[in-house]
Write a structure and sequence with these properties.
With about 350 residues, the chain is of the alpha+beta class. The protein has six helices and 17 strands.
């Protein structure tokens, strides 16, 4: 494929052609590089970082002004809605009067009204109902549950750096797996599986560097070179850095190639209480894509059409990755996990 460059020296199209593609079964094995001890150490470092008791509960667009949204986090029912100013309100999802599910209530002029007996909640303490801190970062909504987290609470969650929302195209995928949050995080801290488990999306994956023993927080990153498949032998090569800024979040940031600065944030939110016999965890993944190419403005204008395709791509990957996480939990829970 001939590469046509523009005045800035970059190719007009961010595409490459694989002249000598290696069949899936003949690619270089990565099992020696994917050291179980290294993955476990990265997981332990992530678990030791503070979260401030904040949990991701969904996309910003999931919490609306016309009706409440219900979530379960660590076995706790949560209700969320927007007040008259558009701010997110959150609190227990159980009505303090007789236990009605507040997610089935109605929102009128920013006030949540219980359908059983009309108890009205404006987001302030009322009749034994106490609000919980909530935060909308423009892409995702977080709620702080001090009882579930058990850490020192913080005023704001640990939101990873990302491109300005107004200059990007963002899409959020949510899936649920029978595993614990650590199994989801462990999956994301194992990039070595990429072109083996996801050959339809990733090829020519190479981990350029992994954290050494005794790593500092500043050095705690996995640097990966990989090509995203477009069609046939046409690919988009990039370099990406994986980091875990808090216990339930792993980010992948593109540092070289097309879309520098674009981020994929993977958040693992436990749905069941700690130690549940059959745990369930929600994967909330935000893709925040950006580019300084002149044509990207047109892509932003088409964002409503692009988001379903972005969510579909995430869903395809997570069908495999949730199977990985679920398998990991089954082996851990029965004492058979070799890592």
């Amino acid at each position: 494929m001939r590469r046509s460059a523009g005045r800035d020296g970059r190719r007009r199209l961010p595409l490459s052609f694989r002249h000598d593609p290696v069949p899936w079964e003949e690619q270089r094995a990565t099992w020696r590089q994917a050291r179980p001890a290294g993955i476990a150490a990265g997981l332990a470092r992530a678990a030791a970082r503070p979260s401030g008791n904040w949990y991701v509960v969904g996309a910003s667009g999931d919490v609306r002004a016309d009706r409440p949204a219900g979530r379960t986090v660590a076995g706790t029912e949560v209700v969320l809605w927007r007040d008259a100013d558009g701010e997110v309100r959150a609190g227990p999802g159980v009505c303090p009067h007789l236990g009605a599910a507040l997610r089935e209530g109605a929102v009128r002029c920013g006030t949540l009204v219980c359908r059983w007996h009309g108890l009205a909640l404006d987001g302030t303490p009322t009749a034994g109902w106490e609000p919980w801190p909530a935060y909308d970062d423009g892409v995702l909504v977080w709620v702080r549950l001090d009882g579930a987290g058990g850490e020192e609470p913080t005023e704001r969650p640990v939101v990873p750096p990302r491109p300005p929302v107004a200059e990007a195209v963002a899409a959020v995928y949510t899936g649920v797996g029978a595993c614990e949050a650590e199994d989801v995080v462990a999956n994301r801290l194992d990039p070595w599986h990429g072109s083996w488990l996801h050959p339809y999306s990733f090829v020519d994956l190479e981990v350029l560097s992994a954290p050494p023993d005794g790593v500092t927080d500043e050095e705690d990153a996995l640097v990966v070179r990989v090509s995203f498949k477009v069609a046939g032998r046409v690919v988009v090569p990039v370099t990406a850095v994986f980091t875990a800024p808090e216990p339930r979040t792993v980010t992948m940031r593109i540092t070289e190639g097309e879309g520098v600065g674009s981020v994929v944030e993977t958040h693992a939110t436990p749905l069941t209480p700690a130690g549940a016999a059959r745990p369930r965890t929600a994967v909330v993944e935000a893709v925040v894509a950006a580019s300084d190419r002149r044509g990207f403005g047109a892509a932003r204008a088409l964002a409503p059409l692009l988001r379903p395709a972005m969510r579909s791509a995430s869903a395809r990957l997570w069908r495999d990755d949730l199977a990985y996480a679920e398998r990991r939990w089954v082996l851990r829970s029965t004492g058979r996990f070799p890592g």
